[in-house]
């Protein structure tokens, strides 16, 4: 459990500087904790916690990646500016690739139980004196990307009535994920009327996993159940020397202009890029052959981290299966979450009972 003095430092830095690099290189400050055996990464913004975003990343990503990669950093900055507390978990039960388990997979129930205990431990720690940060029931916005979206889509039902009066799930966001309710465009189960308001971010270029048809199927089922729901389609993005430099700088990575220009020319020669448009799936093109062009004179982060950020930038520009966000999403989720909180029996309760 983290001493309260550390939380005060987190609050001050999160509010005072929205773009900075600390000693380990993360552009967003986070505090790592081990809660009930779960690696947990926390950022508290504000003098109290009223809304908390609970994050579950996709395969080959851990909790700390939310605070270190360009697209995620932009997303979290917007949340922090709105005084939303942020907590990200690393899957405590996986097969080496950090994928979150589906409901029909081994370790699913064990993983949900571990996370439930970790979340309760965190919320309880935020109630401690001398200055409790939690004084009423916290509204939880669950965010799941890819396999994280499949996993997190089951938590509203599993956690219902298990969070005591400490918190309630008030919104859910699925990013490039069909959720656990849809498989290959087929609806496996109709969500109930008590499912939280849901946002769905997808990429139309994906025609297999989180396809537009799969998203429309789940969206229609939510509307049929009377659940507030909205979908956002993400289009491909331009990739130029200027946009690449800007994206890497978001993650605290500074590359020489000449090196970036040579890298862009190499991508063009490889057939990946043409006139600022990614024309082939980066996962199918050996673009890593040209990465050495960027390494000379680069500042910030390890080589591995630079390459992972670069991979994300290329995949986001192609826009088939990568984390990304529409500018409207957070405000929509916050509006829906606040509306759910007002309807909660714990709304405006002066204090939260101890565990």
UniProtKB/TrEMBL annotation:
<dbReference type="InterPro" id="IPR029058">
    <property type="entry name" value="AB_hydrolase_fold"/>
</dbReference>
<feature type="domain" description="AB hydrolase-1">
    <location>
        <begin position="54"/>
        <end position="238"/>
    </location>
</feature>
<protein>
    <recommendedName>
        <fullName>AB hydrolase-1 domain-containing protein</fullName>
    </recommendedName>
</protein>
<dbReference type="InterPro" id="IPR000073">
    <property type="entry name" value="AB_hydrolase_1"/>
</dbReference>
<dbReference type="Pfam" id="PF12697">
    <property type="entry name" value="Abhydrolase_6"/>
</dbReference>
<feature type="signal peptide">
    <location>
        <begin position="1"/>
        <end position="25"/>
    </location>
</feature>
<keyword id="KW-0732">Signal</keyword>
């Amino acid at each position: 459990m983290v001493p309260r003095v550390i939380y005060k430092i987190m609050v001050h830095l999160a509010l005072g500087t929205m773009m900075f690099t600390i000693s380990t290189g993360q552009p967003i400050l986070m505090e790592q904790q081990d809660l009930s055996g779960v690696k947990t990464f926390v950022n508290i913004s504000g003098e109290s916690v009223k809304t908390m975003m609970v994050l579950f990343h996709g395969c080959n990503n851990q909790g700390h990646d939310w605070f270190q990669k360009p697209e995620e950093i932009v997303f979290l900055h917007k949340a922090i500016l709105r005084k939303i507390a942020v907590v990200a978990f690393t899957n405590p039960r996986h097969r080496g690739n950090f994928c979150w388990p589906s409901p029909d997979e081994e370790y699913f129930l064990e993983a949900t139980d571990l996370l439930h205990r970790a979340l309760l431990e965190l919320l309880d720690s935020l109630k401690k004196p001398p200055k409790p940060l939690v004084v009423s029931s916290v509204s939880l916005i669950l965010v799941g990307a890819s396999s994280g979206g499949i996993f997190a889509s089951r938590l509203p039902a599993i956690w219902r009535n298990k969070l005591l009066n400490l918190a309630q799930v008030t919104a859910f966001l699925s990013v490039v994920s069909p959720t656990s309710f849809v498989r290959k465009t087929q609806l496996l189960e109709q969500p109930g009327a008590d499912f939280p308001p849901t946002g769905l971010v997808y990429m139309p270029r994906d025609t297999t996993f989180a396809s537009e048809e799969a998203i429309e199927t789940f969206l229609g089922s939510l509307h049929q159940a009377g659940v507030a729901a909205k979908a956002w389609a993400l289009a491909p993005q331009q990739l130029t020397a200027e946009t690449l430099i800007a994206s890497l700088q978001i993650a605290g990575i500074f590359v020489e202009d000449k090196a970036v220009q040579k890298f862009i020319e190499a991508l063009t020669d490889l057939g990946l890029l043409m006139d600022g448009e990614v024309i082939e799936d980066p996962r199918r093109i050996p673009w890593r052959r040209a990465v050495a062009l960027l390494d000379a004179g680069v500042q910030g982060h390890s080589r591995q981290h630079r390459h992972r950020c670069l991979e994300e930038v290329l995949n986001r520009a192609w826009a088939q299966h990568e984390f990304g966000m529409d500018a409207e999403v957070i405000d929509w989720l916050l509006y829906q979450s606040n509306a759910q909180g007002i309807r909660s029996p714990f709304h405006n309760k002066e204090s939260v009972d101890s565990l």
